[in-house]
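Hey,

Quick one before I head out. I ran the complex with pyridoxal-5'-phosphate overnight. Inputs first:
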Amino acid sequence: MIHPFSEYRALFPILKTTVQLSSCSQSALSLPVKEAIEKYMTSWVSDGMDWESWMEAVEGSCAEFARLIGAERDEIAILGSVSDAASSIVSCLDLTGSRKTLVCSELDFPSLGHVMLAQQARGARVRFVESDQQGISLDAIKRAFDASTALACLSHVSYYNAARINVQTAADNARQNGALLFVDAYQSAGALAIDVKEMGLDILASGAQKFLLGVPGIAFMYVKGAVARQWEPRNTGWFGRSNPFSFDIRTLDFSDHAARFNTGTPPIICAYAAQAGMKLLNEIGSRSIDAYLQHLSLVGREEARLLGLAVAGPIDPGLRGSVISVQISEAAKVEKAMKAAGYIVSARNDVIRVAPHFYNTEDEVVCALRELSKLVS
Ligand SMILES: Cc1ncc(COP(=O)(O)O)c(C=O)c1O
């Protein structure tokens, strides 16, 4: 297949010398993101302080995230991490009654489990939904919800083996049981097409560092308008007020919108980067990116099969994201050796994740897998 986005490769200087396939951890730096960060630095040097432009960047980043996932701007909160977003939602829950079960799975990023487990001190019961190499089955998703479930926190795509859950089924079951569903989209936003309205989701969060082409230190959380208004987070701060700049210490007036989940000063410099990264993604279109990444994933999996590499996670393309997780002992050492050979990939426990983005070519994916096979044999 001819690379459909080849003209964008010049925007990613690292690609001239290195094969970067680490979008599940940190994607490649693009010139627009670099320029956005420099804009912040330049304004700091020349203007000293520019709240107006800072707030424009914060607004702009939230607007780009809303566009990427098919939400309204008012339905987006801005936080420091996905862990913060989950903590903020969990902090709304009253866990003293009969609805005190918090659900997650072993395929979720550990941080999310930690947020749930930390609630045991205030009465929560934590349940891990069953999963296997094929991910979380529809039956297991259904069983996750009952009259005792307060919240389930599930990854759209697993950080470990790229298993993808059927979020519509999870959302339907959550609603039927009066529970909340928090979708962790950190491994899917920017790689898969997401439309929160079509998918019937109430809450979805992602950070900017991975497929969103940005930096760590910033996360966005979609909370559907009507749902947001029902909840008052205990984790709060001045940016969660209806007017943060009223400086009224005695009044806890929650914003009418998802901004009620904001806490302190937003991660402004990160917002410059996030806005530029997502602007680029929105310009290209997440449906085209999704289709291309599914193609790269098929090519990579076929190559891995020919090389005799063991790929973790579901076989069915409908049940997985685009990352190719190769099972390997001493993955951290192999990651370093791959880097020395000019390939940036990402190790987690016993897997090396080969995570292309739209700027990568078939050839890069194939050559990385051949190098990996050479290193492990
Ligand atoms: C799916 C997923 N969720 C959450 C996280 C953690 O995000 P944060 O550090 O923003 O809390 C990661 C990090 O790799 C992740 O892959």
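The CA atoms of residues 34 and 56 lie 18 Å apart.

Talk tomorrow,
K.
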